[in-house]
Specification:
about 425 residues, alpha/beta, seven-stranded parallel sheet, six-stranded parallel sheet, about 15% strand, disordered C terminus
Length: about 425
């Protein structure tokens, strides 16, 4: 069968600036190994065009691999439709949950999507992220849509409000969050199937009576990890991985420096070396100054993470909310790093087992003492790091996930009616 893969304009790479790229790339690789024909469609205007251009220039090997999987690509511009007036939005939110999303689909965009579908004649549409799924559903195309859900936008808006952002601070902002939540939940109920990299979001979508739901987190190709030789200086670093463009990375790092680091300094006198790995472009200047003042190092974006992630270093994930998926956790597991995270952050990932392949804490006030103890316990670090690597091989490679993915997709395709049976064979029309 033929599958139309729709993606926003984010680079399809396992080593992008944010989690969306890695999750979309992993799903595409799984689809490519099902044996079905894939055609690509990029929705331009809602992602980061600069990142896409950088992807073409800097990751030619990855793009060549993607082009082998998907030889044919289309592009559709999707401008933001003018928003309705305030009172119209109020009525829509109360009476029609789908109206905000449906009305945001530009008429020209809908026509372009219909034209692509008519040319490709797909049996199924796989849509990565919210906007591609919304465009595919509300353009009126009669093809089943699988929605690859990356995050609840309404939940992130609430979290930003909790961290002092302006959004959510007024009744208008709270009303907007209400509208977005209703629209997102309506979209989940409208599509033929949903997948998520978070088992918690899978449970939430099941509670909304989504038709088919599957848990498929980020997959990666195993790296060659060099073991630290006996007798070698093994003083571990504390590392935080993530671009400051992502709310979870930015706010998690800020809270780590505010809450955990002072306690580490108090407990140890001379705390471990701290490395922030990832772009700092979206960070407030105060955050950079704070890292510098504490003797930390910021590497910026690093494409080859093997050069900066050592086995048995302490890898912190200080995000305090049960949102989204942790696309960087498999990276740390692959490299035998010792993940120390909050239970809320890792609730999305049942493969993370406290005391077996990582250490989980209830809140950030517990994290400093855990890091301090692990810093002085090389045997436990090695045990946890080796278990993390085995978990990665068992759960987060394409080969490990493929059989389960194949069964899920076959279930979705089993109810898909061939395109010509739905619209009629053009040769039979007058």
């Amino acid at each position: 069968m033929t599958i139309l893969f729709i993606t926003p304009d984010v680079p399809l790479t396992p080593d992008g600036f944010g989690g969306a790229s890695a999750l979309a790339y992993g799903h595409l690789e799984l689809l490519a190994h099902t044996g079905h024909t894939l055609v690509g469609l990029r929705i331009a205007g809602w992602g980061e065009a600069d990142e896409w251009a950088h992807y073409y220039d800097a990751q030619t090997t990855v793009w060549e691999r993607v082009r082998r999987w998907v030889p044919v690509w289309f592009e559709v511009d999707d401008p933001r439709s003018p928003d309705a007036g305030r009172w119209r939005r109020l009525v829509d939110a109360l009476l029609d949950a789908e109206a905000p999303t449906r009305d945001s689909v530009d008429a020209a965009t809908a026509d372009a999507i219909e034209d692509v579908v008519a040319r490709v004649q797909p049996d199924l549409i796989w849509a990565e992220h919210w906007r591609p799924a919304a465009v595919a559903v509300y353009a009126g195309v009669d093809v089943p849509v699988v929605y690859s859900h990356h995050d609840w936008r309404w939940r992130l808006a609430e979290v930003k409000a909790e961290h002092g952002a302006s959004e959510g601070s007024t009744w208008r902002d709270r009303y907007r969050i209400f509208r977005v939540r209703r629209a997102e939940e309506a979209l989940v109920q409208r599509v033929a199937a949903c997948v998520s990299g978070s088992v918690r979001e899978v449970e939430q979508m099941q509670a909304l009576d989504a038709r088919r739901v599957g848990y498929f987190p980020t997959t990666r190709r195993p790296t060659s990890v060099m073991r630290v030789a006996n007798g070698q200086d093994t003083a571990p670093r504390i590392v935080h991985l993530g671009s400051m463009q992502a709310t979870a990375s930015r706010e998690g790092l800020r809270r780590f420096l505010d809450v955990v680091w002072p306690q580490l300094e108090e407990q140890s006198g001379a705390p471990p070396s701290f490395w922030q790995i990832g772009s700092m472009d979206a960070a407030a200047p105060e955050l950079q100054h704070q890292i510098d003042a504490q003797g930390g190092r910021c590497t910026g974006y690093v494409q080859d993470l093997t050069t900066v992630l050592r086995p048995y270093d302490l890898h912190v994930i200080p995000w305090e909310h049960d949102t989204g998926t942790r696309t960087r956790a498999p990276i740390a597991f692959d490299r035998r790093q010792v993940v120390v995270a909050t239970r809320a952050a890792m609730a999305c990932m049942p493969e993370a087992r406290d005391g077996e392949n990582c250490v989980l804490v209830d809140d950030l006030d517990e994290m400093a003492s855990v890091l301090h103890a692990l810093y002085h316990d090389s045997a436990r670090r090695q045990c946890l790091g080796d278990a993390a690597r085995q978990t990665f091989l068992d759960a987060f490679t394409r080969e490990a996930m493929q059989p389960r993915f194949d069964r899920f997709l076959a279930n979705c395709l089993s109810t898909a009616v061939p395109f010509l049976e739905r619209v009629g064979d053009p040769e039979d029309s007058e």
